[in-house]
Amino acid sequence: MSHFLSGYIIYYKKEYGSWKSEEVFGDIYTYTVGNLQCGMRYEFYITAMDGNGEKSEVITGRTSGR
């Protein structure tokens, strides 16, 4: 029996901010989170929409610019 994954939820926040989320539907391998501020450090993790499985590890990145 195959399991269909309807999508992912991407969680992100500024280094000291509150978590926000975006839903990504379908079998997507890349995604760009928009409206991030220049020169800021962000944290990200993803989960499956159907709730199965563990959340990903939290990764940190910094946007370019000032």
TrEMBL record:
<dbReference type="Pfam" id="PF00041">
    <property type="entry name" value="fn3"/>
</dbReference>
<dbReference type="InterPro" id="IPR003961">
    <property type="entry name" value="FN3_dom"/>
</dbReference>
<protein>
    <recommendedName>
        <fullName>Fibronectin type-III domain-containing protein</fullName>
    </recommendedName>
</protein>
<dbReference type="InterPro" id="IPR013783">
    <property type="entry name" value="Ig-like_fold"/>
</dbReference>
<feature type="domain" description="Fibronectin type-III">
    <location>
        <begin position="1"/>
        <end position="66"/>
    </location>
</feature>
<dbReference type="InterPro" id="IPR036116">
    <property type="entry name" value="FN3_sf"/>
</dbReference>
